[in-house]
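Q: What changes when uridine-diphosphate-N-acetylglucosamine is included in the input?
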Amino acid sequence: MSQAPTVAAAPTAAIVLAAGIGSRMKSALPKVMHRIAGRPMVNHVLATLASERITPVVVVVGPDMDIVTKAVEPHQAVIQKDRLGTGHAVLQAKNALAAFTGDILIVYGDTPFVAAATIAKMRTARLAGDKPSVVVLGFSPSDPGAYGRLIMKGDSLERIVEAKDATPEELKCGLCNSGIILADANVLWKLLADVTPNNSKNEYYLTDIVGLARKAGLACGVVEGAADELMGINSRVELAAAEAIFQNNLRRRALENGATMTAPETVYLSADTKIGRDVEIGPFTVFGPGVVIDDNVSIKGFCHFEGAHLAAGSVVGPYARLRPGADIGPDAHVGNFVEVKNATLESGAKVNHLSYIGDARVGAKANVGAGTITANYDGFNKSHTDIGAGASIGSNTVLVAPVKVGDGAMTGAGSVVRKNVPADALALNEGRQETREGFAAKYRKTKQAQKDAAKKK
Ligand code: UD1
Ligand code: MG
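A: The predicted holo structure follows.
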């Protein structure tokens, strides 16, 4: 959280505009659902609002955007049926916020990087100087292009003009509208009622509230934010660029918090990845959503994790895949080409080579031999495998679930275990071995003779 303003800022609600389909994304998915660091853009915005304790939050979505409505829960979503402009979009949230008195912050669902500290600055600006009723977050992009321009008179913001409606003189102004606006709720609703669609796009522009406020004698202010924080995402090229920036930030944060990465540029993190201290992360590891790494974990690289927990001292990889529900206990080992899904490895358990452990418990200090498979799915149901503490599962064992191997029990290499194995017992069912003395040598001799005869012909 950012530093608290010296004077208590007003209670603040937010309206997130997310009704646009984002046609430049060329996607069936609404734009704000595209992910950055494993999290939909709109959820990045919501996380920032939450960190500033901004509540309630109302999200304006388009028709047929149930997927967005679901993604923003428990916040309320309201539908903007016709897309008549940003001013019109904000008005769709009026009923939902009818009882709210305080400030309203308007943010965009496709501008996911705005920092909590910048929002805090805007809230402080509402209380400073001539106490502006409307505070706009401005920025100076390298290319002002199609952004609305902030027309100033000294320190006072007079109006916002959209690029399409601007004079050549106004277009020269480099200070642009990020779209993020903070206003007193009462003032906002009053001003919006007077907005008309008399402009080149025939839209109700939210930005017109600044000129209207000035006409009513109300002060308007500007806070300037960093350009890279306010980049809007409109295409997949911009999405990829945003991902790259975000990944760099996440890597830096992980390093600063005490993780070691030999090749950070090859490690991909999620916005919610939690990494403890003295964690070693080898190259080319991907952290999907929902991963928690405790202290002193060693990740050997080339791993893929999602929805997994690695407890202190565990050693994983290289080439391990941990899927949702993988809970790797303290000092447990997961080696190369091992897949773990919805399974707990208890303290000190080892699954070191070429195995699939799904829907299972591997008891403390149990050792699972190379090539072991939990056959958890019969085409209809998933069943559980329970391996007791200290058990020793022989290489290439197939555990046909549901099945239990008791504490301290063993299975022979190559066994197919369909029945429970009592504690300390040995289960084996491999075929008996037949040994034919001299067979291999005789076999080679015959084959070689055949080959030589064929050559001579
Ligand atoms: C808007 C601003 C412009 C600013 C720019 C910053 C206005 C009139 N213009 O322009 O000053 O520089 O953003 O990126 O506000 N939306 C709806 N319903 C609508 C229209 C828009 O929900 O009817 C949402 C969009 O999904 C998007 C946001 O509002 O998240 C901005 O809309 P967009 O059409 O991109 O506005 P710009 O023309 O870029
Ligand atoms: Mg835009």
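Observations recorded in class: The CA atoms of residues 103 and 184 lie 4 Å apart.
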